[in-house]
Amino acid sequence: MTILTDTYRRARKSWRCYECPRRVQVGESYHLQTVAESGSVSTYRTCEQCQVLRGILAADFDFGFAEEGFLLDECLRDWAETRGLSAMRVYAWWRRQWRDRHGVRLPVERLHTLLPDEVLALAA
Ligand SMILES: [Zn+2]
Hints:
Elements: E1 2-10, E2 15-16, E3 23-24, E4 29-37, E5 40-47, H1 48-59, H2 65-68, H3 73-83, H4 85-95, H5 108-114, H6 117-123
Antiparallel strand pairs: 1-4, 2-3, 4-5
Residues 17, 19-20, 22, 46-47, 49-50 line the site of zinc ion.
């Protein structure tokens, strides 16, 4: 596997997030990665919130996310159950594609405040 592109972009059109999978709106920042593997190129676009969550989980050694690099529902739920209430809240936000019941998107800055202290300490 070869990573061809690994960068942040501002959306000029609406993309589907590979992880949650909500639609990234025009003007939002997202993470873009293109990967060459077995003769084909894959493109992965990830919303800011999922990218933050990926970073946290990659730094949380007990969960070995660094190898896969992608969020899987089952793994994420295991992580949340192990890390406690605030992690469960983050998991619930992820399941709802980062939107509250009125459809308002969770700002990335708020996501940081929701993360459990012990998890933030791991990622520091
Ligand atoms: Zn996402």
